[in-house]
Design a protein that fits this description.
Layout: H1 2-21, H2 31-50, H3 53-76, H4 78-85, E1 89-93, E2 96-97, H5 99-104, H6 109-118, E3 127-132, E4 138-142, H7 151-162, H8 170-177
Antiparallel strand pairs: 1-2, 1-3, 3-4
Helix pairs in contact: 1-2, 1-3, 2-3, 3-4
Length: 189
């Protein structure tokens, strides 16, 4: 029966320690974070069989403190961040794949294309820059002709065609000018 309360205590301690460690999905974990999380998982399971509950919680706490120190030092020292996490690598520049960089990150063209398709990109020539980030994600900027149109773009286009200049909303304009207009019912005109 003692193993039940020990298991519950380990789960609670593990949840608290992981909450302190921060919220990152597996794809966002650095090498140090991954090693520490695996170590915590292994450490937390052991005491149930070996009756060393407090040693397991202490070890897990040391792992989390080490992780927090490493993350703090990475924020403080750029060279340590580069050493521990790495840097982004440009894999596409001006619609052209940079084969040398793709090889250095051990990624095939097919894998790159798959990731681009998952981001809704169907043509490599539409990509101005694409980077493989240290967390394994693809970052990208589209060429001007391939960027989606924003509401601001549409407003500018529509106003240019009609010859109108955009004015601020009447409610805010009233506050700025301290002049309150009363809307006129079109039926009364």
């Amino acid at each position: 029966m003692a193993w039940i309360w020990k298991s519950v205590l380990l789960v609670i301690a593990g949840m608290i320690l992981l909450r302190i460690a921060g919220r990152k999905s597996i794809s966002q974990m650095s090498v140090a974070t991954t090693v520490i999380m695996i170590s915590i998982g292994t450490t937390i399971v052991q005491p149930i069989a070996n009756n060393q509950l407090w040693k397991a919680i202490g070890s897990a706490t040391i792992f989390i403190v080490a992780l927090l120190i490493i993350e703090y030092l990475q924020v403080k020292f750029n060279w340590l961040e580069n050493l521990m996490s790495g840097r982004s690598k440009i894999v596409i520049e001006n619609g052209q794949i940079i084969s040398k960089n793709l090889r250095s990150v051990r990624m095939t063209v097919d894998q790159l294309e798959m990731r681009l398709r998952q981001n809704g990109i169907s043509n490599i020539s539409d990509v101005k820059f694409a980077t493989l980030e240290p967390n394994g994600q693809i970052g990208y900027e589209l060429m001007q002709h391939a960027k989606p149109v924003t509401i601001g773009d549409l407003e500018r286009i529509l106003n240019l065609k009609s010859g109108k200049v955009l004015e601020q909303s009447g409610l805010f304009q009233e506050i700025k000018t301290n002049h309150h207009t009363i809307p006129i019912d079109p039926k009364l005109k």
